[in-house]
C-alpha cells in the first residue's frame, strides 16, 4: 500500500499580472513541510513580469509553466490548469496569498476517506499585515463537514485557495458551471462523492486588496432612493439567477433521487416569482427542507425563508421588504 508520503500533490495556480505578490506565495510553497509536490502554473497572457518571476523559481520548485496563446479569463484558466495536474491530490493556489508551511501536510493527513478537505484562512492586508480576523468569523457562514451537495446551492464556506481534494473528483467537475462559483461547484461535487471535511485551523494568509476575487462593490455609494427603486428589479434578476443555479446543480452526476426531486420542486416554485404576491407553497417547502438548504448560513433562517417567498408583485409596491 502506498504511504501518504509517497502521494504526489499537484498545486495548481492560474496567474495573471501577479508579479507584485507572486514571490511571497512561491516562497511559501518552497517552505512546505510536505515535499512530494508539483506546482503547475498557467499564465493568462500577463503583461507584467509574472513570467520572469515564475522562471526565477523554476529550478527551486518542481514547477511546470504553461502560457495561454490568448486570454481565457479567471475561471477558464483555472479549469485548464487543473486538467494538467498529475498528482494523487490537488490543491488550488492563488497568486497573491501566503500558505502556512504545514498546509499541505496537515490537509493531506486529515482528508482520510473524504473527497475534499478545506481549512480556515486568516485575512491580511495588501502589505501582509494581519487584519486579526479569520474567514470563519468574517463570513456569515458555518464552516461545515458535510455530504449534502444542496448546502452549496445558496451559500459557500469552501474557498478554492483553502481546499485539497482527491484527483478522482476531476472526473465530475468539468466543465465548470457558468452560474456557480468554481469553488462552490467543486465542493458540491465532492459532497456527492465521499463528502467535504472541515479542518479547523487557518492555513492560508488570504490577502485583501483591490484586485482579488472577494473585493466587493461598495453599495453605500448609491443613494437610498436609487437602492430602493432598483431592489424590485434586482429581485427579479436574482430569481432568474436562482433558477439557473438550480439547473447547474441538477447536472451534478451523483445526485440521489430525493435531491433531484427537491431541486425540481424548487425550480417550479421559483418560476412562479414574477406572477405571485407571496408563495406559501415555497415558504412551506423551504421550511420543511431548511436543514438541507440552509446548512451553511449563520443568518436568521426564518427571516431568509420569509424573504425568499415574497413575490415580485409585492416587491413592486413595497421594494423595501
Structure description:
The protein is α/β, with parallel strands linked by helices and 321 residues long. Helix content is 38%, strand content 17%. The chain contains 13 helices and nine strands. It has helices at 19-30, 50-56, 74-82, 103-110, 135-138, 170-173, 182-192, 224-249, 257-270, 280-288, 290-293, 301-309, 312-317; strands at residues 9-15, 37-43, 63-67, 89-93, 98-99, 116-124, 130-134, 163-166, 196-207. Strands 1, 2, 3, 4, 5, 6, 7, 8 and 9 form a nine-stranded mixed β-sheet that branches. α2 links the parallel β2 (37-43) and β3 (63-67). α1 (19-30) packs parallel to α2 (50-56), α8 (224-249) runs antiparallel to α9 (257-270) and α10 packs antiparallel against α12. The longest helix is centred in the last third of the chain and has 26 residues, at 224-249. The chain starts with 8 loop residues before the first strand and ends with a helix. Residues 213-220 have low confidence and may be disordered.
SSE layout and pairings?
Layout (H helix, E strand, L loop, with lengths): L8 E7 L3 H12 L6 E7 L6 H7 L6 E5 L6 H9 L6 E5 L4 E2 L3 H8 L5 E9 L5 E5 H4 L24 E4 L3 H4 L8 H11 L3 E12 L16 H26 L7 H14 L9 H9 L1 H4 L7 H9 L2 H6 L4
Parallel strand pairs: 1-2, 1-4, 2-3, 6-9
Antiparallel strand pairs: 4-8, 5-9, 6-7, 6-8
Structural class assignment: alpha/beta
User: Radius of gyration from the CA trace?
Assistant: 21 Å
Helix content: 25-40%
End-to-end separation in angstroms reads 59 Å
Largest sheet: 9 strands, mixed
**Estimated share of beta-strand residues:** 15-25%
Which descriptor suits the 3D outline? globular
Low-confidence stretches: 213-220
| Run of helices and strands | EHEHEHEEHEEHEHHEHHHHHH
Annotation field: number of helices: 13
What is the residue-mean pLDDT, rounded to a whole number?
93
Quantity of strands, as a count: 9
Amino acid at each position: 500500500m502506498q504511504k501518504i508520503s509517497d502521494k504526489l500533490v499537484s498545486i495548481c495556480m492560474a496567474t495573471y499580472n501577479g508579479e507584485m505578490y507572486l514571490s511571497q506565495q512561491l516562497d511559501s510553497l518552497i517552505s512546505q513541510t510536505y515535499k512530494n509536490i508539483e506546482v503547475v502554473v498557467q499564465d493568462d497572457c500577463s503583461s507584467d513580469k509574472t513570467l520572469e518571476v515564475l522562471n526565477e523559481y523554476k529550478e527551486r520548485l518542481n514547477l511546470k509553466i504553461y502560457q495561454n496563446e490568448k486570454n481565457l479569463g479567471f475561471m477558464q484558466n483555472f479549469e485548464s490548469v487543473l486538467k494538467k495536474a498529475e498528482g494523487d491530490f490537488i490543491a488550488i493556489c492563488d497568486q497573491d496569498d501566503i500558505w502556512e508551511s504545514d498546509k499541505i501536510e496537515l490537509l493531506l493527513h486529515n482528508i482520510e476517506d473524504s473527497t475534499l478537505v478545506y481549512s480556515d484562512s486568516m485575512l491580511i492586508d495588501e502589505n501582509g499585515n494581519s487584519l486579526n480576523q479569520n474567514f470563519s468569523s468574517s463570513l456569515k457562514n458555518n464552516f461545515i463537514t458535510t455530504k449534502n451537495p444542496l448546502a452549496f446551492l445558496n451559500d459557500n464556506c469552501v474557498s478554492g485557495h483553502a481546499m485539497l481534494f482527491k484527483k478522482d473528483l476531476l472526473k465530475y467537475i468539468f466543465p465548470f458551471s457558468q452560474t456557480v462559483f468554481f469553488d462552490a461547484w467543486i465542493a458540491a461535487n465532492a459532497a456527492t462523492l465521499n463528502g467535504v471535511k472541515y479542518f479547523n485551523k487557518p492555513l492560508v494568509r488570504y490577502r485583501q486588496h483591490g484586485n482579488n476575487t472577494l473585493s466587493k462593490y461598495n453599495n453605500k455609494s448609491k443613494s437610498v432612493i436609487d437602492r430602493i427603486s432598483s431592489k424590485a428589479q434586482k429581485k427579479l434578476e436574482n430569481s432568474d439567477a436562482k433558477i439557473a443555479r438550480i439547473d447547474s446543480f441538477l447536472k451534478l452526476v451523483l445526485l440521489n433521487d430525493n435531491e433531484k426531486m427537491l431541486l425540481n420542486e424548487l425550480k417550479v416554485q421559483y418560476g412562479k416569482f414574477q406572477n405571485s404576491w407571496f408563495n406559501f407553497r415555497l415558504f412551506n417547502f423551504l421550511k420543511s427542507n431548511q436543514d438541507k438548504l440552509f446548512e451553511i448560513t449563520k443568518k436568521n433562517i426564518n427571516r431568509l425563508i420569509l424573504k425568499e417567498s415574497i413575490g415580485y408583485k409585492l416587491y413592486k409596491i413595497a421594494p423595501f421588504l
